[in-house]
Amino acid sequence: AYCGVASIVMVLNALAVKAPPAPGYEPFATFTQDNLLNERTEAILPQQTLLKQGMTLTQLGAILAAYGTTARVRHAEDDGLDDFRRAASRQLATPGGHVIVNYLRRAIGQESGGHISPLAAYDAGTDRFLILDVSRYKYPPVWVGASELFAAMNTVDADNAGRRRGYVLIER
Question: What percentage of the chain carries pLDDT values higher than 90?
Answer without folding.
Answer: 84
